[in-house]
Amino acid sequence: MPDEVPVTADTMTPAARPAVTDRPILKVLAQRWSARAIDPSRAVSRAQVTTVLEAARWAPSSGNAQPWRYLVFDASVPQALDRARACLSRGNAWAYRAPVLLLSLVDRYWPDSDDLNPRALHDVGAASLSLCIQAVSDGLVAHQMAGFDSALARVRFAIPDRMDPVAFIALGHPGPIDLLDDRRRERERAPRRRRPVQQSAFVGGWGGSGVTA
Ligand SMILES: Cc1cc2nc3c(=O)[nH]c(=O)nc-3n(C[C@H](O)[C@H](O)[C@H](O)COP(=O)(O)O)c2cc1C
């Protein structure tokens, strides 16, 4: 087990970087962000993992197809955790500190069918966001990552042909920002940015006026 990492004022808790929203939204949504400073000394229990997976379970999906699957990598099978870490791109090396890695998979087809489910990827995203929101609510960090070697993951973890790996999710407890290199530290402190709603939502059709209060 690595040395205990002290919790300091610079620990990147969910509350450390709330979204500055134009309208009031649920606190847990504003507090969700993709932190990279994860405390390597604090384990995430199997009960905590099961809880976030339960949140994913209750996501809505087209035809209730539930096209998501999750592979779980933790200290219970250290070789698999090492192999999962080795699938991550170099830019995601910060995630090696996470005691748990999840890998979301999509079943591209309707259950027990060879017909493609065109909304499958959408629904995996919905399930993973539910998972992340539950994690924030439980005081955990959940950070999704597309930066990984998908072909390698498929082979290493015997992922069936009808499924595709979608995203790794680093799960852990928030840690001090000092764990990160200078560049990443700066990114963690940078203002969080989003397009305004009126540039994403339009009344009456494409080209309609942007939605405002
Ligand atoms: C599907 C997906 C893939 C992502 N891939 C990565 C990644 O490989 N590495 C990383 O550091 N962050 C990754 N992110 C995090 C995004 O960069 C982050 O969600 C975005 O910048 C918005 O910031 P926020 O989540 O803190 O609000 C990913 C997020 C999603 C949803």
Care to describe what's here?
Helices cover 27% and strands 15% of the residues. The relative contact order is 0.21. The protein has helices at 27-31, 46-57, 78-85, 120-137, 150-156, 182-189, and strands spanning 38-39, 68-73, 100-107, 141-145, 163-174. Strands 1, 2, 3, 4 and 5 form a five-stranded antiparallel β-sheet that branches. The protein has one domain: NADH Oxidase (3-Layer(aba) Sandwich). The protein is globular. The chain binds flavin mononucleotide. The site of flavin mononucleotide (FMN) has 9 residues, from strand 4.
Notable characteristics:
5 strands, 213 residues, 27% helix, binds flavin mononucleotide, alpha+beta, NADH Oxidase, five-stranded antiparallel β-sheet
Bound molecules: flavin mononucleotide
Beta-strand content estimate: 15-25%
Helical content class: 25-40%
List SSEs in N-to-C order.
HEHEHEHEHEH
The Rg value, from CA coordinates, equals: 18 Å
Sheet/helix structural class: alpha+beta
For this structure, the CATH topology is NADH Oxidase
Distance between the termini: 52 Å
The CATH superfamily bears the name NADH Oxidase
Level-2 CATH architecture: 3-Layer(aba) Sandwich
Low-confidence stretches: none
Brief digest:
By secondary structure, the protein is of the alpha+beta class.
SSE layout and pairings?
Blueprint: H1 27-31, E1 38-39, H2 46-57, E2 68-73, H3 78-85, E3 100-107, H4 120-137, E4 141-145, H5 150-156, E5 163-174, H6 182-189
Antiparallel strand pairs: 1-5, 2-3, 3-5, 4-5
Helix pairs in contact: 2-4
